[in-house]
Every structure is written in C-alpha cells, then in structure tokens.
Amino acid sequence: xxxxxxxxxxxxxxxxxxGAAVIYLTAFVAAALQFRALIGEQGMLPVxxxxxxxxxxxxxxxxxxxxxxRLFAGGCWFGALLSAAVVAGLADLVPLWAAMLxxxxxxxxxxxxxxVGQVWYGFGWESLLLETGFLMIFLGNARVAPPILTLxxxxxxxxxxxxxxxxxxxxGDPCWRNLTCLYYHHETQPMPGPxxxxxxxxxxxxxxxxxxxxxxxxxVVPFGLFAPQPVASVAAAVIIVTQxxxxxxxxxxxxxWLTILLACSAVDQASLAAVLPVPAQPALAAPLWFTxxxxxxxxxxxxxxxxxxxxxxxxxxxxxxxxxxxxLVNTYGAFGSIGRTRHEVVIEGTAEDELTxxxxxxxxxxxxxxxxxxxxxxxxxxxxxxxDWLMWFAAISAGYxxxxxxxxxxxxxxxxxPTLKLLRCNPFxxxxxxxxxxxxxxxxxxxxxxxxxxxxxxxxxLVGSYVxxxxxxxxxxxxxx
Length: 481
Known about the structure:
Keywords: Endoplasmic reticulum, Membrane, Transmembrane, Transmembrane helix. Residues 121-272 form the Lipase maturation factor 1/2 N-terminal domain. Residues 328-467 form the Lipase maturation factor 1/2 C-terminal domain. The structure is a single chain. The protein is α+β, with helices and mostly antiparallel strands and 481 residues long. It has two domains: 7-313, no CATH class; 342-471, no CATH class. 48% of the residues lie in helices and 8% in strands. It starts with 9 loop residues before the first helix and ends in an 11-residue tail after the last strand.
C-alpha cells in the first residue's frame, strides 16, 4: 500500500523520535533525582499512602503492584537508560516489533510515575509527553517508511496544543484581547529565565506585536498543518519560530521543546531541500500486521478525540485535562489568565532558641524560583524543578500548598538530606534550625537604573507572614500568620 507510506517525512520522523527520546531521558532523570523528598516512602506525599486508597484502573501504574524507593529509582534509571539507547539509534537497528516494544516500555514506565506523582506531576506537559510517546509506538523505525496515518495523528496533536492554547487565551484574560498581557507575563511567569528581564523591558508596542503574533501562530497557523505542502511545512516553521521565542523568554520545562519536535515532523523533504541538502529515501513497505495496528490505533484516536474536540468548542473550555487515566488524546492550553503582580514565598530559618524582634533569620535559596534579588534567573528547561514550580502556585493561593507545605517545613527542621537536595543551598549545614517560617514578598523586575546601581535583578517588598514560625512538635498552616 504505497499510499500508506510517506518516505518524504523520514527526516522529520527521525528528529521527532530522537527528540522525544531526549525528553523522556530528561523526565526520567528528573524523576530519579527528585522523587525521594516529594513522593518517596518518607516523602511529603508518599506513594504508598496515595495508592492505598485508589484502584489500579483509576490511576494505572506499576507501583500498585509493589512500591519501594529502590524499585522506583530502578524504574527511573532503567527508563533513562532505555531513552538514551533510543537517542543513540538503537530503535532503528532492531526489528520493527522490538522498536515498538521499546517505545511501549518507555510509555508504561512514565505513565506509572505520572499516575502516582500527585500534584508534583499535575502539569500539561506530562500528558503531552505521554500522548507523544504513545504515538511513537506507531511511527515505525528505519526499517519502514513513516506511516501517513500516524503523521496525521501527530499533526492533530500539535493542532490541539496550539489551537487549544490560543482559544483559552481569547476566552480568558481580557489582556489577551487588548494585546497587553506581555506587559506583565515575562515578570510574573512561573519561572523566569536569564533573558526574561530583558524581554520584560522591551517597548510596549513590541509587546503588543508579540501578543498579536501569538494569536496568529495559535489560532490561524495550526489550520495550515492540514494543508498540502509546502503550506504545511511553512505552518510548522512558524510554530517552531514562535516556540523558540518562548524558549528564550522563560522556563516551561519540555512543553516548548516537545511542541517544536511535533512541528518538525510536518516538514517534508521537498520543503527542507530548499534550505538543506537532503538525500532521498526509499519507500520501504510496512508489514501487514503493522499497517493493521496503525489503522486500529488511528480509529481509537478518532473516537477519543470527541472529548477534547468538544472541550475546545465549549465556552467553558478547560485546559491541560486528560479524559482517561492513560493520558491519551488530551486537551491543552496555558495562561488563560495572567498575573499583574508577582508574589514569592520565601522560607527562612533560625538557630536561636528564643524568638525576639532581633532574631536573625537565614533564607533558604531555591534552584530556579526567584529568591535573592541579586541572583540572575537561570535557564533550567527542559529540566523540570517540581518543588520550585509548586512554590509559584503556593504564592498565588495557600490552597495549593496545604498538602505539602507543612511536610516541607518539617523536613527542613530535620535537615532531611533528600529535601535539601531540592534546594540550591542550606543555610544550616552543621545543625538543623530551631525554627522555620515562610514570608510572602512582592517581587518585581528592577529598572535599568536599579540594575546598574544595585546590581539587582529583582526588587522585593514584604507583604506579610505566610507561615508563622514553627518548630518540631508544633505545626501550623499556610496563611495563618
């Protein structure tokens, strides 16, 4: 069936597959390095306690069968090793069925992590990675030409990512409609990057052009993905450029990078040959069993697409939602509302036995979220700092922090090694603090003049207490100070 094969997309498939494996590798390494303090047996939100009250079919995960920190770590590092093997090209050297099993194993392992990860894994890019990873099972390897049906499903996923994000903005905050959201967004986004300060200080007319360009890229361009070539390649190129702009301006884990990879798969050989020398590839016929599996999979995606399509058309559109516990065919979107001011929760400790007005408090520094006003924001994406991201949500509303803030502070009072590894530095290296507390600050980017004078990227003002001073044996709750 020559119509089933699309050899003109062999390079786009290779970029997507190798890139998706890199994202898997990043995700598994991040899970391995952070899980003990977050969801481990002695973590803030332990997996055993979570799975005890839930059925397998509600949260399908291998860790329903058995959980231990050693087993979880082993699964993470095995997933990282398998991902690295795919990046190195192993999936193209083995038989097609073996390559499919490799992608299936990666998906099952990461699904098992996400479904027990609780609030730490409640991000849209987790579902995006799982949905992309499941598509990879049916994209084939170097032994067959890319199946056109799977390539169309990849474009359908990319369309939902972009168009869903565009719709949620137009239906959400009025600043998207009056083109002023980027007056604030670069400053108030969850985790600014090293260039965010400079983006924030761009002229306001340019910010308005940025928003208008975003609307065009997300509400108009995605339809071009389903047009004949070279229109589809041009649409993909526009998406790639706009996503690279987002990569430069912030830290959004692997969301932007995965979107770029999905767009690469829509660029055909003829369009690419206009800028790069690309050798022709033979149309390698797919075995009948693989063709049948792709057809069955495409039919299943078509059925499952009813719910995200209905959601996109609804005036009550929800963003970043999975309609099934396997995170297949999801709905996406981000920043339906934009904060005008930035607040940060700053955690402090003291070794003093008695608290007075002269007590010296030392601040805990996080790796990614703003803390010290003199510290330039760092680039972390596509790596995901889960605690740092949840601290941003905690500053918006104490309700986000209720399940884990007290366990976090309690572990700081014990100098818990896995918890301290999530932080940039520990101000109490020799002995745990006697008390810890959390303060709420208003942050804003400094002006050009303030940066030159004070060598500070941020200016901050104390808003008030977030968690009153607590010590072991006496706990408190966020926003009761």
